[in-house]
Amino acid sequence: MRTPELPPVHEAWLPRDHPLHRPRHGRRQLVALICALAFFSAPLSSWLFGARPEQLENRPLAEFPSVTEGFGFFTGLNGWATDHLPFRKGAVQAVSGISRGVFGEPAPLAGGSHGSPVGAGQVDAKPPIDESVFPPVIEGRDGWLYLGHDVSYRCVPSRTMDEVIAGLRAWRKAVESSGRTFQLVIAPDKSTEYPEHLPEDYAGKDCSEAARAEFWRRVPEATGAIDLRGALRRAAERNGHPIYHDIDTHWTHEGGATMVYQLAERLSPGITGTWRMTPSRRYPHSADIPDLLGQDRTVDIQAYALAPDGGEDNAQFKPSDFHEPLHLRSTPKPGMITKPVRMVGDSFTQFASPYLAATYSDITITHPDNVATNPAATADLLAQGEVVTFELSERFVAGGRYPLLNPDVAAEVGQVLAAHPVR
């Protein structure tokens, strides 16, 4: 039997009574198109009427994707539209309130898998986090909150531990072979420093604890990284209170200052002997983890004055997320590090920058994102220093989620440093 030939026109153009007629857009398709148009146009239309998006997570809002990214333009629209939806914060708060008030349990709110609370770069392809398994927030004992990525990044790593170590070693080699001093410090996760407030059981407990143990057993020794855990515990004991905030993922100013002391002593042993640190102002700081639960909560911040020569306060408070490099300079005094220092640091360094400014006469800080997204500019920046310091967060290193861990990035920057050696 002969198969009938298909008509030479599109099926939508056939007469309605033709058996092969299909409308170009059925009613369901039309409804879907209208909904999609409303979703993606809502941020723009609301902006025209004065509404502005609010940052819920400790990361920049997703940028509008570039048309040069090919199909990535379309895949990137979802993250941009979600971040820029008007009244998103109110919606999150409403969902959280209903879930807790009606069902007596926290809402399964997503933490934004396209980004991260303490800002890893978006260069690498990273394994997605299934937030139906790993929630964005872990609610611990005594009201403590933990960032879910403390667990999920260890359980779903982007790189093996061997690859992480190789990446960090590549940076040490690139910097030191140019005659510069390299310092690497890892900011421990709050769940590492204060595991006693974690719940008895939670998703990923076994795999995250195993990964944490392997990390601290291998990484400091293999890479020369400064292990701050002991120094932080001793500082907390001296001060009589925890050195991490109970509802924020970061350490306090005392934690940032502890890192500053440790770094300075390794550059110039005994230099901190003249330092005098005293309490200064207190101020409220918006806590990052409650935002993921749709809550507005603050932590009380105790800041400090720091006089490197024991005299007048030399601290500088200049808020920055370091995506635009922060330059801190002051007149050299006794007790200060006078060699030019260039630093790569994330949000933990925000709680240390006032004391870095107090004790370094010339320091510039840039964010880890910048290293991989613009290695040429990073190379030029690091080449200006005689000392290169990296502060990296445990969760991102242990999970292999820093793009700068790619040895090719270190090699590219290292070529520039080698062309401008320190004698």
From TrEMBL:
<keyword id="KW-0812">Transmembrane</keyword>
<dbReference type="GO" id="GO:0042121">
    <property type="term" value="P:alginic acid biosynthetic process"/>
</dbReference>
<protein>
    <submittedName>
        <fullName>SGNH hydrolase-like domain-containing protein, acetyltransferase AlgX</fullName>
    </submittedName>
</protein>
<dbReference type="GO" id="GO:0042597">
    <property type="term" value="C:periplasmic space"/>
</dbReference>
<keyword id="KW-0732">Signal</keyword>
<feature type="domain" description="AlgX/AlgJ SGNH hydrolase-like">
    <location>
        <begin position="137"/>
        <end position="269"/>
    </location>
</feature>
<keyword id="KW-0808">Transferase</keyword>
<keyword id="KW-0378">Hydrolase</keyword>
<keyword id="KW-1133">Transmembrane helix</keyword>
<dbReference type="GO" id="GO:0016787">
    <property type="term" value="F:hydrolase activity"/>
</dbReference>
<dbReference type="InterPro" id="IPR031811">
    <property type="entry name" value="ALGX/ALGJ_SGNH-like"/>
</dbReference>
<keyword id="KW-0574">Periplasm</keyword>
<dbReference type="Pfam" id="PF16822">
    <property type="entry name" value="ALGX"/>
</dbReference>
<feature type="transmembrane region" description="Helical">
    <location>
        <begin position="30"/>
        <end position="50"/>
    </location>
</feature>
<keyword id="KW-0472">Membrane</keyword>
<dbReference type="GO" id="GO:0016740">
    <property type="term" value="F:transferase activity"/>
</dbReference>
<comment type="pathway">
    <text>Glycan biosynthesis; alginate biosynthesis.</text>
</comment>
<keyword id="KW-0016">Alginate biosynthesis</keyword>
